[in-house]
Amino acid sequence: MKKLWLIFAQTTTIGLAIWFLLTLLNPAWLPVNKAREVITLRESNRASAPVASMPTRETPPLAVSFSAGARKAMPAVVNIYTSKEVRSPRHPMLNDPFFRKFFGNDDPQRASSLGSGVIVSEQGYIVTNNHVVESADEIEVALADGRTADARVVGADPDTDLAVIKVEEGKLPTISFADVDKVQIGDVVLAIGNPFGVGQTVTMGIVSALGRSQLGINTFENFIQTDAPINPGNSGGALVDTQGSLVGINAAIYSQSGGSLGIGFAIPATTVRQVMEAIIKDGKVTRGWLGVEAQDVTPELAASFKLMPAHGALIAGVVRGSPADKSGIRPGDILLTVGKKDVRDSSGMLNQIAELKPEDTVEMHVFRNGKDLTLQVKVGKRPKLAQR
C-alpha cells in the first residue's frame, strides 16, 4: 500500500513539474491557451469586418420626395374647359313642318371638353395644345388657387399642336423653362394636369426616349417620350423636372383603351418657347422653307451612293422655282448639314429648315456624285399650302 501511494505521489509531482515548465517556457503549447488564441482570432476577425459588426442603432433610409418641384410648378398649371356648338346632320324629313311637330326642331347641341394649360407670362398668356381649344366658342380657365376666368385665343399652330390663350387676371404665377439640351433618358419627370376632370393631379415617371418623330401626330415632331401617367385631360399640361422647370407640354399618348399605358409624348420646351414667342409677337408662326421632298438614307442607299456611315436626307424631289431649285439643289443630292447642324434623317431636316428665318442665307452641304458640295441657300417662307 505504501508502495502504491509512493508511486502516485511521484507521478503527481513529476506531472506538476512538467506543467510548470511548459507554462513557464511556452504557454501556447497548452490546449487551454490554444483555445483562447482561437477565440481571440475570431473576435479580432469579427471586429475588423464591418459586415459582421452589430450597430447599436440602425439609421433609417432617407425618404425621396419631389414635393418641392411639384409645389413650384403647380400654381402655373391651369385647367381648361371649352364648349362649342355642334350641329348634327339634318334629316331631310325635318324640313317638313308636319314632321317637326312630332320630332321637334333640329336645334344645335353644345359639346364640352377639358384640358390643361401652362401660364408662361405674368400678363396672362397660357400655352396649351391646339386640339384643346380648336373651334371652341367658349373657353374657361380654372386657376390653381380656385379663381376662374374667361380666355380668348391669341393664336394657334396646328403643325406643332400648340396654341396660346390669354386671360385678364392681373399678375399671375408663371413657370420657368428647363434647359432641354441637358435632359437625359432616365431623368425623373412629373406630369401635371387635369386628367378626366378630377382636378389638378401630379404623376411621376422618367424620360423614356428623346427625339421621337415619324409618329404621324404632327407635321413637326420631336417628342419627349415619358412613362409618367398621362390621361385624357392632361393634354396641354406641364411635364416638369424635379426642380419644377418646364421640360415639355404633354400632347399625346399611345393607348388602345384611352387610358395611360406608360407611353406618353410631350412637345419639348424649346419648341414651346419658339412657337409661343412667335404667336405672342405676330399672332402666327412663320417657318423656313426649301421646297424639297426628302426621304431617309437607308444603309442600302448609303452603300449605293458610297456614303458611309448612312446619314443625311436624300432629296427625292425639288419644287420648281423654290429656294432649293434656285440654289442648285438637285434630286439625288444627299443633304448633310443645314447651317452648322448635321442632318440625321428627313424628319430632322424638316424641323431644322422650319427653324430658319425666311430671307436668311444659310450654308448647306450636299453629297453629290461622291463629292461634298457647299451651297449658299436663301431660305424661303413656308407657304400655307405646305401646312397641314
TrEMBL record:
GO terms for biological process: proteolysis. SUPFAM superfamilies: PDZ domain-like (SSF50156), Trypsin-like serine proteases (SSF50494). It comes from the Bacteria. Keywords: Hydrolase, Protease, Repeat, Serine protease, Signal. Residues 279-347 form the PDZ domain. The active site is at 131 (charge relay system), 161 (charge relay system), 235 (charge relay system). One of its GO terms (molecular function) is serine-type endopeptidase activity. SMART domains: PDZ (SM00228). Its EC number is 3.4.21.107. The keyword Transcription does not apply. Substrate binds at residues 131, 161, 233-235. InterPro entries: Chloro_Bact_Ser_Proteases, PDZ, PDZ_sf, Pept_S1C_Do, Peptidase_S1_PA, Peptidase_S1C. Belongs to the peptidase S1C family. This is Periplasmic pH-dependent serine endoprotease DegQ. It comes from Amantichitinum ursilacus.
